[in-house]
Protein backbone atom coordinates (compact mmCIF):
# COMPACT_ATOMS: atom_id res chain seq x y z
CA UNK A 1 0.00 0.00 0.00
CA UNK A 2 1.33 3.44 -0.94
CA UNK A 3 1.99 5.95 1.80
CA UNK A 4 -0.62 8.62 2.20
CA UNK A 5 0.26 12.26 1.78
CA UNK A 6 0.73 13.74 5.30
CA UNK A 7 -2.29 15.72 6.38
CA UNK A 8 -0.31 18.95 6.65
CA UNK A 9 0.83 18.55 3.04
CA UNK A 10 -2.74 17.91 1.93
CA UNK A 11 -3.97 21.01 3.72
CA UNK A 12 -1.21 23.09 2.18
CA UNK A 13 -1.98 21.78 -1.27
CA UNK A 14 -4.73 24.18 -2.24
CA UNK A 15 -2.75 27.20 -1.07
CA UNK A 16 0.37 26.19 -3.00
CA UNK A 17 -1.59 25.64 -6.19
CA UNK A 18 -3.54 28.85 -5.69
CA UNK A 19 -0.47 30.99 -4.98
CA UNK A 20 1.31 29.74 -8.08
CA UNK A 21 -1.67 30.11 -10.37
CA UNK A 22 -2.52 33.59 -9.10
CA UNK A 23 0.97 34.79 -9.98
CA UNK A 24 0.61 33.24 -13.40
CA UNK A 25 -2.81 34.77 -13.90
CA UNK A 26 -1.60 38.23 -12.93
CA UNK A 27 1.27 37.91 -15.37
CA UNK A 28 -1.12 36.90 -18.14
CA UNK A 29 -3.43 39.76 -17.25
CA UNK A 30 -0.59 42.28 -17.43
CA UNK A 31 0.65 41.03 -20.78
CA UNK A 32 -2.58 40.10 -22.49
CA UNK A 33 -5.45 42.27 -21.32
CA UNK A 34 -4.37 45.10 -23.59
CA UNK A 35 -5.84 43.05 -26.41
CA UNK A 36 -9.12 42.37 -24.64
CA UNK A 37 -12.31 43.47 -26.37
CA UNK A 38 -13.15 47.12 -25.78
CA UNK A 39 -16.70 46.53 -24.54
CA UNK A 40 -17.29 44.21 -21.65
CA UNK A 41 -20.53 42.51 -20.66
CA UNK A 42 -19.23 41.11 -17.38
CA UNK A 43 -21.96 41.35 -14.76
CA UNK A 44 -20.98 39.86 -11.41
CA UNK A 45 -24.04 38.40 -9.72
CA UNK A 46 -23.99 36.49 -6.47
CA UNK A 47 -25.82 33.18 -6.95
CA UNK A 48 -25.50 31.72 -3.50
CA UNK A 49 -29.09 30.66 -2.84
CA UNK A 50 -29.34 26.86 -2.97
CA UNK A 51 -32.36 24.90 -4.08
CA UNK A 52 -33.72 27.32 -6.67
CA UNK A 53 -36.25 25.84 -9.05
CA UNK A 54 -34.39 25.91 -12.36
CA UNK A 55 -36.71 23.46 -14.09
CA UNK A 56 -39.52 25.88 -14.86
CA UNK A 57 -37.66 28.97 -16.05
CA UNK A 58 -36.73 27.93 -19.57
CA UNK A 59 -38.55 25.80 -22.12
CA UNK A 60 -36.49 26.56 -25.22
CA UNK A 61 -35.15 23.84 -27.48
CA UNK A 62 -31.46 24.75 -27.60
CA UNK A 63 -29.37 21.57 -27.73
CA UNK A 64 -26.79 21.51 -24.94
CA UNK A 65 -23.42 19.74 -25.10
CA UNK A 66 -21.55 19.43 -21.80
CA UNK A 67 -17.77 18.94 -21.73
CA UNK A 68 -15.98 17.75 -18.59
CA UNK A 69 -12.43 18.47 -17.45
CA UNK A 70 -9.45 16.30 -16.55
CA UNK A 71 -9.68 13.77 -13.75
CA UNK A 72 -13.42 13.20 -14.20
CA UNK A 73 -15.85 12.06 -16.90
CA UNK A 74 -19.28 12.99 -18.18
CA UNK A 75 -20.94 11.83 -14.97
CA UNK A 76 -19.60 14.97 -13.30
CA UNK A 77 -22.65 16.67 -14.88
CA UNK A 78 -25.08 14.15 -13.33
CA UNK A 79 -26.81 16.70 -11.09
CA UNK A 80 -27.07 19.36 -13.80
CA UNK A 81 -28.39 17.16 -16.63
CA UNK A 82 -31.87 16.39 -15.17
CA UNK A 83 -32.55 20.11 -14.66
CA UNK A 84 -31.68 20.89 -18.27
CA UNK A 85 -33.69 17.94 -19.57
CA UNK A 86 -36.72 18.87 -17.49
CA UNK A 87 -36.57 22.32 -19.09
CA UNK A 88 -37.02 20.70 -22.50
CA UNK A 89 -33.46 20.57 -23.80
CA UNK A 90 -31.69 17.76 -25.54
CA UNK A 91 -28.47 17.17 -23.59
CA UNK A 92 -25.29 15.24 -24.32
CA UNK A 93 -22.40 14.97 -21.85
CA UNK A 94 -19.39 13.93 -23.89
CA UNK A 95 -16.85 11.38 -22.69
CA UNK A 96 -13.45 12.83 -23.52
CA UNK A 97 -10.66 10.30 -24.13
CA UNK A 98 -8.15 12.70 -22.51
CA UNK A 99 -5.40 11.30 -24.73
CA UNK A 100 -4.74 14.62 -26.46
CA UNK A 101 -6.36 18.02 -26.88
CA UNK A 102 -6.87 17.24 -30.58
CA UNK A 103 -8.74 14.01 -29.78
CA UNK A 104 -10.86 15.76 -27.18
CA UNK A 105 -11.79 18.53 -29.59
CA UNK A 106 -12.70 15.95 -32.23
CA UNK A 107 -14.89 14.13 -29.68
CA UNK A 108 -16.75 17.32 -28.82
CA UNK A 109 -17.22 18.15 -32.50
CA UNK A 110 -18.81 14.74 -33.13
CA UNK A 111 -21.28 15.37 -30.32
CA UNK A 112 -22.09 18.80 -31.78
CA UNK A 113 -22.70 17.25 -35.20
CA UNK A 114 -24.84 14.52 -33.65
CA UNK A 115 -27.32 16.84 -31.95
CA UNK A 116 -27.18 19.50 -34.67
CA UNK A 117 -27.90 23.21 -34.50
CA UNK A 118 -28.58 25.17 -32.45
CA UNK A 119 -25.98 24.13 -29.87
CA UNK A 120 -24.99 25.73 -26.59
CA UNK A 121 -21.55 24.38 -25.70
CA UNK A 122 -20.59 24.19 -22.02
CA UNK A 123 -17.14 23.40 -20.61
CA UNK A 124 -15.87 22.85 -17.07
CA UNK A 125 -12.19 23.30 -16.10
CA UNK A 126 -9.99 21.87 -18.92
CA UNK A 127 -13.24 21.54 -20.86
CA UNK A 128 -12.81 25.26 -21.50
CA UNK A 129 -9.84 24.44 -23.73
CA UNK A 130 -11.97 21.93 -25.60
CA UNK A 131 -14.98 24.18 -26.25
CA UNK A 132 -12.74 27.11 -27.19
CA UNK A 133 -11.40 25.02 -30.07
CA UNK A 134 -14.39 22.81 -30.94
CA UNK A 135 -16.69 25.80 -31.52
CA UNK A 136 -14.32 27.79 -33.71
CA UNK A 137 -15.94 28.44 -37.11
CA UNK A 138 -18.58 25.85 -36.21
CA UNK A 139 -21.94 27.07 -37.54
CA UNK A 140 -23.89 24.72 -35.25
CA UNK A 141 -22.64 26.40 -32.07
CA UNK A 142 -24.42 29.57 -31.00
CA UNK A 143 -22.87 30.27 -27.61
CA UNK A 144 -20.33 29.17 -25.01
CA UNK A 145 -20.62 28.71 -21.24
CA UNK A 146 -17.46 28.38 -19.15
CA UNK A 147 -17.89 26.78 -15.72
CA UNK A 148 -14.81 27.56 -13.59
CA UNK A 149 -12.92 26.90 -16.80
CA UNK A 150 -9.84 27.90 -18.73
CA UNK A 151 -10.52 30.25 -21.63
CA UNK A 152 -7.19 30.26 -23.47
CA UNK A 153 -5.91 32.55 -26.16
CA UNK A 154 -4.45 31.16 -29.34
CA UNK A 155 -1.06 29.54 -28.70
CA UNK A 156 -1.60 29.01 -24.98
CA UNK A 157 -1.46 25.57 -23.36
CA UNK A 158 -2.31 24.20 -19.94
CA UNK A 159 1.39 24.56 -19.23
CA UNK A 160 0.92 28.33 -19.34
CA UNK A 161 -1.28 28.04 -16.27
CA UNK A 162 -0.04 24.91 -14.46
CA UNK A 163 3.52 23.89 -13.61
CA UNK A 164 3.39 20.31 -12.38
CA UNK A 165 6.97 20.58 -11.16
CA UNK A 166 5.78 22.98 -8.46
CA UNK A 167 3.03 20.74 -7.14
CA UNK A 168 3.70 19.06 -3.77
CA UNK A 169 5.57 15.78 -4.02
CA UNK A 170 3.14 12.91 -4.42
CA UNK A 171 0.20 15.06 -5.47
CA UNK A 172 0.28 13.70 -9.02
CA UNK A 173 0.79 10.05 -9.87
CA UNK A 174 1.97 8.86 -13.31
CA UNK A 175 1.34 5.44 -14.80
CA UNK A 176 3.63 3.66 -17.28
CA UNK A 177 1.74 5.10 -20.23
CA UNK A 178 2.35 8.69 -19.19
CA UNK A 179 -1.17 9.27 -17.86
CA UNK A 180 -1.69 11.48 -14.85
CA UNK A 181 -3.76 10.76 -11.73
CA UNK A 182 -4.39 13.01 -8.76
CA UNK A 183 -3.51 11.31 -5.49
CA UNK A 184 -6.86 10.23 -4.01
CA UNK A 185 -5.77 11.46 -0.58
CA UNK A 186 -5.50 15.00 -1.93
CA UNK A 187 -8.36 14.99 -4.43
CA UNK A 188 -11.14 16.21 -2.17
CA UNK A 189 -9.33 19.19 -0.69
CA UNK A 190 -7.91 20.25 -4.03
CA UNK A 191 -11.05 20.08 -6.13
CA UNK A 192 -14.23 19.29 -4.21
CA UNK A 193 -13.96 20.38 -0.60
CA UNK A 194 -17.63 21.40 -0.44
CA UNK A 195 -19.26 18.14 -1.50
CA UNK A 196 -19.98 15.11 0.66
CA UNK A 197 -16.61 13.54 1.62
CA UNK A 198 -17.89 10.07 0.75
CA UNK A 199 -18.83 11.28 -2.72
CA UNK A 200 -15.44 12.96 -3.13
CA UNK A 201 -13.74 9.66 -2.32
CA UNK A 202 -15.78 7.89 -4.98
CA UNK A 203 -14.93 10.53 -7.58
CA UNK A 204 -11.26 10.22 -6.68
CA UNK A 205 -11.45 6.44 -7.04
CA UNK A 206 -13.08 6.55 -10.48
CA UNK A 207 -11.13 9.56 -11.77
CA UNK A 208 -10.20 9.52 -15.44
CA UNK A 209 -6.47 10.08 -15.99
CA UNK A 210 -5.19 12.38 -18.71
CA UNK A 211 -2.15 12.08 -20.94
CA UNK A 212 0.56 14.44 -19.75
CA UNK A 213 1.06 15.57 -23.37
CA UNK A 214 -2.13 17.60 -22.95
CA UNK A 215 -0.16 20.00 -20.76
CA UNK A 216 1.89 21.20 -23.74
CA UNK A 217 -0.64 21.16 -26.59
CA UNK A 218 -1.39 24.67 -27.81
CA UNK A 219 -4.87 26.04 -28.25
CA UNK A 220 -5.97 27.25 -31.67
CA UNK A 221 -7.96 30.34 -32.68
CA UNK A 222 -10.55 30.92 -29.93
CA UNK A 223 -14.26 30.59 -30.57
CA UNK A 224 -14.95 33.01 -27.74
CA UNK A 225 -13.98 35.82 -30.10
CA UNK A 226 -16.84 34.79 -32.40
CA UNK A 227 -19.67 33.88 -30.03
CA UNK A 228 -21.60 35.15 -27.00
CA UNK A 229 -20.09 33.88 -23.76
CA UNK A 230 -21.12 33.17 -20.18
CA UNK A 231 -18.83 32.41 -17.25
CA UNK A 232 -19.25 31.03 -13.73
CA UNK A 233 -16.58 31.94 -11.18
CA UNK A 234 -16.04 29.58 -8.21
CA UNK A 235 -15.06 31.83 -5.32
CA UNK A 236 -13.60 28.98 -3.23
CA UNK A 237 -11.78 27.25 -6.07
CA UNK A 238 -8.51 25.57 -5.03
CA UNK A 239 -7.64 24.41 -8.55
CA UNK A 240 -8.04 27.58 -10.61
CA UNK A 241 -7.80 30.73 -8.47
CA UNK A 242 -10.94 32.89 -8.55
CA UNK A 243 -8.85 35.88 -9.67
CA UNK A 244 -7.70 33.90 -12.69
CA UNK A 245 -11.29 32.92 -13.45
CA UNK A 246 -12.38 36.54 -13.29
CA UNK A 247 -9.53 37.37 -15.65
CA UNK A 248 -10.80 34.75 -18.10
CA UNK A 249 -14.36 36.07 -17.82
CA UNK A 250 -13.23 39.61 -18.55
CA UNK A 251 -10.98 38.49 -21.40
CA UNK A 252 -13.87 36.76 -23.20
CA UNK A 253 -16.36 39.55 -22.45
CA UNK A 254 -18.65 37.10 -20.66
CA UNK A 255 -21.87 37.57 -18.77
CA UNK A 256 -20.63 36.36 -15.40
CA UNK A 257 -21.97 34.96 -12.15
CA UNK A 258 -20.11 34.14 -8.96
CA UNK A 259 -20.79 31.15 -6.70
CA UNK A 260 -19.41 30.30 -3.22
CA UNK A 261 -18.18 27.02 -4.65
CA UNK A 262 -15.20 24.72 -4.94
CA UNK A 263 -13.84 23.82 -8.37
CA UNK A 264 -16.54 21.12 -8.59
CA UNK A 265 -19.44 23.57 -8.92
CA UNK A 266 -21.55 21.27 -11.16
CA UNK A 267 -21.67 18.87 -8.20
CA UNK A 268 -21.85 21.29 -5.28
CA UNK A 269 -24.10 23.95 -6.89
CA UNK A 270 -25.96 22.17 -9.70
CA UNK A 271 -29.08 24.35 -9.51
CA UNK A 272 -27.18 27.58 -9.97
CA UNK A 273 -24.93 26.15 -12.68
CA UNK A 274 -27.96 24.81 -14.54
CA UNK A 275 -29.73 28.15 -14.20
CA UNK A 276 -26.80 29.96 -15.83
CA UNK A 277 -26.92 27.49 -18.73
CA UNK A 278 -30.70 27.90 -19.04
CA UNK A 279 -30.37 31.68 -19.00
CA UNK A 280 -27.78 31.48 -21.77
CA UNK A 281 -30.02 29.19 -23.82
CA UNK A 282 -32.98 31.51 -23.36
CA UNK A 283 -30.96 34.57 -24.32
CA UNK A 284 -29.72 32.90 -27.49
CA UNK A 285 -33.18 31.67 -28.46
CA UNK A 286 -34.67 35.12 -28.00
CA UNK A 287 -31.89 36.69 -30.06
CA UNK A 288 -30.65 38.76 -27.14
CA UNK A 289 -27.14 37.46 -27.76
CA UNK A 290 -25.78 36.94 -31.26
CA UNK A 291 -22.50 35.95 -32.89
CA UNK A 292 -19.85 38.66 -32.96
Characterise the protein shown here.
The chain is an alpha/beta fold and 292 residues long. The chain has a domain at 55-154 and 218-285: Alpha/Beta hydrolase fold, catalytic domain (Rossmann fold). The chain is 35% helix and 15% strand. The chain has helices at residues 7-32, 81-86, 101-115, 127-134, 184-191, 197-205, 242-251, 265-268, 270-285, and strands at 45-46, 63-67, 91-93, 119-124, 141-147, 172-174, 179-182, 210-211, 229-234, 255-259. The strands form two sheets. It has a seven-stranded parallel beta sheet with strand order 1-10-9-5-4-2-3, sandwiched between helices. β6 and β7 form a beta hairpin. α1 packs across α5 (184-191) and α3 (101-115) packs across α4 (127-134). The protein is globular and about 50 Å long.
Write the layout of secondary structure elements.
Layout: H1 7-32, E1 45-46, E2 63-67, H2 81-86, E3 91-93, H3 101-115, E4 119-124, H4 127-134, E5 141-147, E6 172-174, E7 179-182, H5 184-191, H6 197-205, E8 210-211, E9 229-234, H7 242-251, E10 255-259, H8 265-268, H9 270-285
Parallel strand pairs: 1-10, 2-3, 2-4, 4-5, 5-9, 9-10
Antiparallel strand pairs: 6-7, 7-8
Amino acid sequence: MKKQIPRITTLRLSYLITAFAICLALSITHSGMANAQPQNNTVMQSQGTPGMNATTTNATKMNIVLVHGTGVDGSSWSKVIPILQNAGHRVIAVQLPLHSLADDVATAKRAIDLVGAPVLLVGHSYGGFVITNAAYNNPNVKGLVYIAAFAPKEGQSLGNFLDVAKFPKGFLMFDKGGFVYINPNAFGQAFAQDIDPAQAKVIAAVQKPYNQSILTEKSGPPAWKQLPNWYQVSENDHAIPPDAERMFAKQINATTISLPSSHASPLSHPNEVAQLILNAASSLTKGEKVAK
